[in-house]
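Box 3.1. Reading complex inputs
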Amino acid sequence: MIIQKSSNPRISSFDPTSFSFGNTFIDHMIICEYNNGKWGDLQLVPYGPIGFTPAMMGVNYGQACFEGMKAYKDKDGKVFLFRPEKNAERINKSAKRLAIPEIPKEIFMEGLKTLVDIDRDWIPHGEGMSLYIRPLLFATEEALKARVSEKYLFAIVATPAKSYYAAPVSVKISDHYSRSANGGVGFAKAAGNYAASFYPTQLAIEEGYDQIIWTDDSTHEYFEESGTMNVFVRINDTIYTPKTSEKILDGVTRDSFLQLAKRRNLEVVVGDVKVSDVIAAQRNETLKEVWGVGTAVVTSIFEALGYNDEHLLLPKLSEEESFAAMLKKDLTDIQTNQAEDPFGWRVLVEEQVYDL
Amino acid sequence: MIIQKSSNPRISSFDPTSFSFGNTFIDHMIICEYNNGKWGDLQLVPYGPIGFTPAMMGVNYGQACFEGMKAYKDKDGKVFLFRPEKNAERINKSAKRLAIPEIPKEIFMEGLKTLVDIDRDWIPHGEGMSLYIRPLLFATEEALKARVSEKYLFAIVATPAKSYYAAPVSVKISDHYSRSANGGVGFAKAAGNYAASFYPTQLAIEEGYDQIIWTDDSTHEYFEESGTMNVFVRINDTIYTPKTSEKILDGVTRDSFLQLAKRRNLEVVVGDVKVSDVIAAQRNETLKEVWGVGTAVVTSIFEALGYNDEHLLLPKLSEEESFAAMLKKDLTDIQTNQAEDPFGWRVLVEEQVYDL
């Protein structure tokens, strides 16, 4: 591994009590180039621009995928990653579907740990605080041919993070737009999936909603995801969530919620979630909660569903009554080293793991 | 418009009889930045890299779309564009669906004509020769938030072009993978649509095919597109092509073929093209031709269809018998100023249209 530390670090000007999420970047980044059929040297370098012409295939043909993950700092200053091997596996599932060469897990993990270790002072400590980490893979060959690229970049960049959403949100159940096709790339964290969701989301916002519950493109009768999150529904005391498929992301937070719910002996059904069943439950008052989960937001609780022209309110549960709030606390307590970790999910980031 | 000509042009080393399509770039490119809610100065600059970090939203969230078009040089050295206003309109349809700000048509056309004029010496003359031009729009803000970007780049880059495919190709009728969802972005030249097609195409190639005829994702009973082209079928002497929709690109070559077919009083049906009808026609020997059309390839003639596990051969028609070959010649004769242009499709690129 090649380490080139910044000669002009910005950390001294970083105020962990006041920063902008998403565009405050830590001092370094990880890069590794793929060329001539193989991955080159893993490098830690100062965060900054790399030269690409507008013929770069990544922006022409969308051959690009990413991961989202976080590092947490506990009260003693120890730093932990959360189930990082899941992200290493998933970026390669995405890569395979997009015909991008897989990044070896060792390169992914070494780059990740080195970056987080060297820039550990950028990780804020406290309620909802973390370092949001973005590994990504994208095509860098400069060529105007709609074919698989011969050059790629693996990179990891990161930004300090606070809680994403504060208030409960209203979500519209999609009756026209969709985010994934049968035989498509919905299960992958493919760059193009996100761009495709923006315009329908803008329309939903104009209608007074915050985001969209995506439904299947053929019938709009089944829940798929919500915004950029997996979706959970609670009817009476049973939790329902769609099973993963080629259309639905295999979310790390989703999987963790399922395991935490089982540990609490909650009844969980993983399978088809029918729009009509959810609406019927709202009408007969057995629908207790609907929420989204994802790395960035952890949990987003919904206060209303838009269904055709109706605005259907959901119950306001207390922190004690809410399964969503309870499971979120179970999860974040493990992530932030405030609870035992019987699952072995936390991964300590050792100090000075790199050779200088 | 700001013109900054290359101080180190490469044109003297360009050999129009021997070059590599797609990665031989002309000396200049057009760029125009969008920021603070508006498009800035249109600029012609030397082709080359621009600095982006891996947090650039275009490669993270796929907010990117493009056009493909060509300039042709006639025997007298005059240079023509072909229906460029169609591309200016379509890039904005793509942009709208991807929540990218539209590029004003005047900026698009001025940039296009200036670039082609200044680099006209790069345009090869001769059978199948042209300059392939790539206008594109992509998100350039550096931020790790899955939301609409606030900064964009409009760019035009170009590469000299020869004929794309030489030989007839075999195509597999997709029975699992698909390129577009109902309520999705299939009609747009969205970057992500192309990446999503690569892996299924690789699998088809492993089965001995060259590309895929995409079918609807719900039933796989209807033709949509073929590879990156619109698809035409001829049964007896009637031409069929799918109607455009939110799943099917409104191709300029497709539209031109339809108008040329009508001029020749050929019977044309624009509507659903059922896989089962095409297969039945192949079996009863009324299926005469199946071909794809697009700017890059103009026409790609198919010699065989893969359907489930069958390899169904198509007739080998002579140039005189083939509607595809006839319409291709009609089109390229107009494009290259070898025939009258009753449609008003050719647009002359004047010399010295720019102010220095």
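In summary: Chain A touches chain B through 72 residues (CB under 8 Å).
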